[in-house]
Amino acid sequence: MADQCDLCLLGLIILSSLLTGTSAVNVFISSGENVRLSCNNALSDCKSTAWIYYNRFRHSAVKLIVGGIKKKDTERHERLSLGSDCSLNIKNVKEEDYGLYTCRQYVNGEQQGTDALVDLHVLHGRSVTLSCQMYSVSCNYLVDYQGLQLLWVNQAGVDLKTDSRYQILFSSDHCIITLTTTLLNEDDNREWRCQLTLRNQLQTSVRYTVKYSVIVMIVEMAVFAAPTVILLQIICARRAGEFELHTI
């Protein structure tokens, strides 16, 4: 029944656009950014506004806004909001947000005017995983009893585990730490560091700077006080896109 309703809703959208000669406005955005979809047919009161989303490949239509009120039973309702001009705002755009968005006006249950169509195209950033590993004959002992830690920080020294954009995982012995994130346009020249601390004191670190097509790895070794030989290794695992790893 739900599939039949989706098909009926899709048919009405297509039929309306054919009869009125309405064409969709193309909007291009990168994943992770915020986007505003304009409603060019809005009335003075957004209480008459409905936003409908359709994904061509999923063959599903979803009502996002009804009567100017956000539907809470949609997967992404927390990232959606209605602007004062009845535009649809989407925060932290994801690749699955692409598709056709229809702004429609209803007064007393009757459609008013023509639909405003917006075709959203999402450029998905490249996902990259970095693995930082400590090699030592006494790694477990140092972690369990000496307070040794591995952590990923930004160039300001802020621990990245507090940022939901990054997925940080540890191996069972906490001697390997991985960071996974999607590279965005604003990451150009951004620096991340893998730090090794002992009793909350920085011992050594590895840092790298992201370029649009190149990841530059700069290794900075500090003096380690304990009589233990430690090697930090950074491994850049490609998830999507092409990267080159240059050691300086």
UniProtKB/TrEMBL annotation:
Lineage: superkingdom: Eukaryota
InterPro entries linked: Ig-like_dom, Ig-like_dom_sf, Ig-like_fold, Ig_sub, Ig_V-set
Keyword annotations of the record: Membrane, Signal, Transmembrane, Transmembrane helix
An example Gene Ontology CC term for this record: external side of plasma membrane
GO biological process: interleukin-15-mediated signaling pathway; positive regulation of ERK1 and ERK2 cascade; T cell activation
Pfam families in the record: V-set
Record field: transmembrane: 212-235
Entry annotated with the keyword Ribonucleoprotein: no
Molecular function via GO: MHC class II protein binding; protein tyrosine kinase binding
UniProt entry tagged with the keyword Ribonucleoprotein: no
Residue span(s) of domain Ig-like: 29-104, 125-205
Signal peptide stretch: 1-24
The name this protein goes by in its record: Ig-like domain-containing protein
Organism: Anabarilius grahami (Kanglang fish)
